[in-house]
Automatic annotation (TrEMBL):
Description of its domains: Has three domains with a flexible linker between the domains II and III and assumes an 'L' shape. Domain III is highly mobile and contacts RuvB.
Protein name, per record: Holliday junction branch migration complex subunit RuvA
Gene name linked to the record: ruvA
Protein species of origin: Sphingomonas qilianensis
GO MF annotation terms: DNA helicase activity; hydrolase activity
Ranges in a coiled coil: none
Annotated spans, Domain I: 1-64
Domain Helix-hairpin-helix DNA-binding motif class: 73-92, 108-127
Top-level taxon of origin: Bacteria
Record's function text: The RuvA-RuvB-RuvC complex processes Holliday junction (HJ) DNA during genetic recombination and DNA repair, while the RuvA-RuvB complex plays an important role in the rescue of blocked DNA replication forks via replication fork reversal (RFR). RuvA specifically binds to HJ cruciform DNA, conferring on it an open structure. The RuvB hexamer acts as an ATP-dependent pump, pulling dsDNA into and through the RuvAB complex. HJ branch migration allows RuvC to scan DNA until it finds its consensus sequence, where it cleaves and resolves the cruciform DNA.
Keyword DNA-binding among record annotations: yes
Assembly with partners or alone: Homotetramer. Forms an RuvA(8)-RuvB(12)-Holliday junction (HJ) complex. HJ DNA is sandwiched between 2 RuvA tetramers; dsDNA enters through RuvA and exits via RuvB. An RuvB hexamer assembles on each DNA strand where it exits the tetramer. Each RuvB hexamer is contacted by two RuvA subunits (via domain III) on 2 adjacent RuvB subunits; this complex drives branch migration. In the full resolvosome a probable DNA-RuvA(4)-RuvB(12)-RuvC(2) complex forms which resolves the HJ.
InterPro entries in alphabetical order: DNA_helicase_Holl-junc_RuvA_I (IPR013849), Hlx-hairpin-Hlx_DNA-bd_motif (IPR003583), NA-bd_OB-fold (IPR012340), RuvA (IPR000085), RuvA_2-like (IPR010994), RuvA_C (IPR011114), RuvA_C_sf (IPR036267)
Family: Belongs to the RuvA family.
Length: 196
């Protein structure tokens, strides 16, 4: 599993980028929002990634932020939403706007994305309403984690914790360990706090 890529941005196109990491060019699918955020061609860049594996392909999808990657995972968990549609939604809506749309059950806002009709938009807002629990908005009363904290939340989500639990545990761990805490230390302490 490839969690992120750090290298030189070699090229971009309408729906992907090529990132040179140690002489190897990785083709990474991406939303238009990520493509505009990762910087100019020829400069250093870093993207969080999700690896998609099927019988006939292996594909990397890249994201400028861990929150965008987490939303991609949630969206592709909805029946009828593949990688292409999820990227179209993330191109049309920022993670915070997507959170608001789902919390408000605003299917019209989700339907603004290319390839998303009214029925699919309704299914997305209905299925994700109980799952968002703080993915992009954070837990009420606690700051939304960023940097190593966001990666720690992602790790907790991958271990099966609900978004609200993961955010609360990581925020508590960040508060105890301080701003310079490493990802490793954050995840260890967050796991202990979540188990209480």
């Amino acid at each position: 599993m490839i969690a992120h890529l750090k290298g030189i941005l070699s090229a971009t196109d309408i729906d992907h980028a090529v990132i040179d990491v140690g002489g190897v060019g990785y083709l990474v699918g991406a939303s238009s929002r990520t493509l505009s955020a990762i910087g100019p061609v020829g400069e250093a860049c870093m993207v969080h990634t999700e690896m998609l594996v099927a019988e006939d392909f292996i594909r990397l999808v890249g994201f400028a932020t861990a929150a965008e990657r987490d939303w991609f995972r949630l969206l592709t968990g909805v029946q009828g939403v593949g990688a292409r549609v999820a990227l179209a939604i993330l191109s049309a809506l920022e993670p915070t706007d997507l959170s608001r749309a789902i919390a408000a059950q605003d299917k019209a806002m989700v339907a603004r994305a290319n390839g998303v009709g009214p029925k699919l938009a309704e299914r997305i807002v209905r299925e994700l309403k109980d799952k968002i629990g703080g993915v992009a908005l954070g837990t009420p009363g606690l700051p939304a984690p960023s940097g190593a904290g966001a990666d720690a939340v992602s790790a907790m989500l991958n271990l099966g914790f609900r978004p609200a639990e993961a955010n609360a545990a990581v925020a508590a761990a960040e508060e105890e360990l301080g701003a310079g805490a490493t990802l490793d230390a954050l995840v260890r302490l967050a796991l202990r706090k979540a188990a209480k």
